[in-house]
UniProtKB/TrEMBL annotation:
CDD domains reported for this sequence: TM_PBP2
Keyword Transmembrane helix (UniProt): yes
Domain ABC transmembrane type-1: 84-294
Domain of life: Bacteria
Species name: Paenibacillus chartarius
Database matches in SUPFAM superfamilies: MetI-like (SSF161098)
PANTHER family per UniProt: ABC TRANSPORTER PERMEASE PROTEIN MG189-RELATED-RELATED, POLYGALACTURONAN_RHAMNOGALACTURONAN TRANSPORT SYSTEM PERMEASE PROTEIN YTCP
Topological type in the membrane: Multi-pass membrane protein
Keyword Cell membrane attributed: yes
Lineage of the species this protein comes from: Bacteria, Bacillati, Bacillota, Bacilli, Bacillales
Gene3D superfamilies tied to this protein: MetI-like
Principal location: membrane
Protein's name in the database: Carbohydrate ABC transporter permease
Subcellular location: Cell membrane
């Protein structure tokens, strides 16, 4: 009986630190969630709050005066709809092409029999740390004839070195027997890649696809550099940036008192702050809708290389 009592006592004593750790862990995670979500929730509240009322401040988690004026101000621009289509096309095409080409390169340099694998790897990794610069890059794009072209969104960034490393690490973790069996059965390298390697690397491909898609969707500087004179190739992010600039210019032209008086007189008024919040929500929604479908693959892909079989 005494032995059992001592065991129960030790069990109770040891459970106290565990409980303290669990409580601290939960509190820390809740704090992390609040810190992470609050900026987005605040932007959501600002985007749906009357801009005239927002000047007073005090908007935190919920709009004080609900309105759709901020969204109407943005979507009244006719160019927004075509720009959204261009953004969707560049995201879709750019993601598919980039991920497929990056995966082919990753498979190639993952093969031990490829004699130039170290040289090719070093050559690509070198570009992660050193680049030619903005002006040489622009001159190269111009010489390639891609100014005012849709393909300037796709071809220059077709290979992502970091993405290539992620996919290569995943491929190197696959059993060698699978690839050897395919070659014994007479499959060539491309057939092996398409039918064996590609289906098994879905977690890594999903992770990389998310990286590429977010980059393509949010990109606007390449539009400014190469396609700013061709409105039919403008993207959503570039059009939103122009709207924000116009709002800043208009805000600087009048005083805050004049803006407040204009809002009180019944006119629709926006401010750079309300426009910025609305832009954030518009740009984030597509990624938020896609992420849940890729989350399980994203987590697995990000931990690739942690444990090798």
């Amino acid at each position: 009986m005494s032995h059992v009592s001592r065991s129960l006592s030790r069990s109770r004593d040891s459970s106290v630190p565990d409980k303290i750790f669990d409580v601290c862990n939960v509190l820390f995670m809740l704090f992390l969630v609040v810190v992470t979500l609050y900026p987005f929730v605040n932007m959501f509240a600002m985007s749906f709050n009357d801009a005239n009322d927002s000047i007073r401040g005090g908007i935190y988690l919920w709009p004080r005066m609900w309105t759709l004026d901020n969204y109407q101000y943005i979507f009244k621009e006719a160019a927004i709809y075509h720009a959204t289509l261009i953004s969707a096309l560049r995201t879709l095409i750019g993601t598919i092409v980039s991920v497929f080409c990056t995966a082919m390169l990753a498979y190639t340099i993952s093969r031990q029999e490829f004699v130039l694998r170290k040289f090719v790897t070093v050559a690509f990794v070198f570009t992660m740390y050193f680049s030619g610069g903005l002006i040489p890059g622009y001159l190269l794009i111009r010489e390639l004839g891609m100014i005012n072209s849709f393909w300037v969104y796709i071809i220059p960034g077709i290979i992502g070195v970091f993405n290539m490393i992620v996919i290569r690490s995943f491929i190197e973790g696959l059993p060698d027997g699978l690839i050897e069996s395919a070659k014994i059965d007479g499959a060539g390298e491309f057939t092996t890649f398409m039918r064996i390697v590609l289906p098994l690397t879905v977690p890594a491909l999903a992770t990389v696809s998310l990286f590429v898609a977010v980059g393509q969707w949010n990109s606007w500087f390449d539009v400014f550099l190469y396609n700013s004179s061709k409105i039919e190739l403008s993207t959503l992010q570039y059009e939103l940036m122009k709207i924000l600039q116009a709002s800043n210019t208009a805000a600087n032209a009048v005083t805050a008192a004049d803006q407040f008086a204009a809002g009180q007189s019944g006119g629709v008024m926006v401010t750079p702050t309300s426009i910025r919040a609305t832009m954030t929500i518009i740009a984030s929604v597509p990624i938020i809708l896609v992420y849940p479908f890729l989350q399980k693959y994203f987590v697995k892909g990000m931990t690739v290389g942690g444990v090798k079989g």
